[in-house]
Design brief:
This protein is of the alpha/beta class and 242 residues long. Helix content is 33%, strand content 24%. It has nine helices and eleven strands. Strands 5-4-1-6-10-7-11 form a seven-stranded mixed sheet, with helices on both faces. A two-stranded antiparallel sheet has the order 2-3. Helix 3 (76-84) packs across helix 6 (180-188). The longest helix is centred in the last third of the chain and has 14 residues, at 228-241. The protein starts with a strand and ends with a helix. The mean pLDDT is 95.
Length: 242
């Protein structure tokens, strides 16, 4: 059994920007740039693109990128669960397929922490500095206890107050580590849990299953590719981050 695999879950169907992972920046797709960043931290044989789309699978084969075809799933984490049934490891690192600006040192920190805590579910977070992010429904906020275990994640502006003002808050960084056992139980549910579905935040499924999620503070991604304006921003500012 391997210590871990690094998984990049990908799907072409996206409500806000379909096929975004195949968009080009400087003659490479967004997916390729993310893969190349992962290669700076992890050996090639440990990295897999996991997808439900044969087009992505064929693209990866042409680029000599390890890939794995799943059935259509509820979430990216469910895709990793499908992969875990065929490729066993102690834990699985998840890097999102649209987080082109994720921080390499943050990924390294997550991997080091996961190796020391292979049986813990781990998610990254960072401090919110911009009030617009605090009020944005596109930014999952994280509330945690004194031991850095996640209490809840919400798209609402939390923690809040009577004046509804931004004082201090933290957001999710989309880098995760999932142990094999907890991932297996996550995937066998076959449906989203109540608050996972309401918030559209899959890490909440683990909380609703009474699992603890350890949070580690890292540097946040500058911007995920969710919309056309995000893509235009990435093209314009690409050289600042690569």
């Amino acid at each position: 059994m391997k210590d871990f695999y690094l998984i990049i879950p990908v799907r072409l169907e996206s409500s806000r920007l379909p096929r975004k992972v195949m968009y080009l920046i400087k003659e490479k797709t967004i997916l390729e740039w993310i893969y190349l960043k992962c290669l700076k931290c992890v050996k090639k044989e440990n990295i897999y693109v996991v997808t439900e789309d044969k087009e992505v699978l064929n693209f990866c084969k042409n680029k000599n990128i390890n890939s794995f075809l799943t059935k259509k799933t509820l979430t990216g984490t469910d895709k990793i669960y499908e992969f875990s049934k065929f490729k066993k490891a102690k834990f699985y690192i998840n890097v999102q397929g649209d987080e082109i600006f994720f921080d390499i040192n943050s990924l390294k920190k997550l991997i080091i922490t996961a190796k020391k805590n292979p049986k813990k579910i781990i998610n990254c977070y960072t401090k919110i500095e911009d009030e617009r992010e605090y009020f944005s429904p596109n930014v999952p906020k994280m509330v945690f206890d004194k031991k850095s275990f996640l209490m809840y994640s919400s798209r609402a502006p939390v923690p809040s107050n009577k004046m509804h003002k931004f004082i201090e808050a933290y957001k999710q960084v989309c880098l995760y580590s999932f142990p094999h056992k907890q991932l297996s139980e996550f995937g066998t549910l076959k449906k989203k849990t109540k608050f996972e579905k309401i918030e559209d935040i899959e890490i909440n499924r683990f909380l609703e299953m009474s699992y603890k999620v350890l949070l580690i503070q890292t540097k946040g991604s500058n911007r995920a590719i969710d919309t056309l304006s995000d893509y235009k921003y990435a093209k314009k500012n690409f050289s600042e981050f690569y």
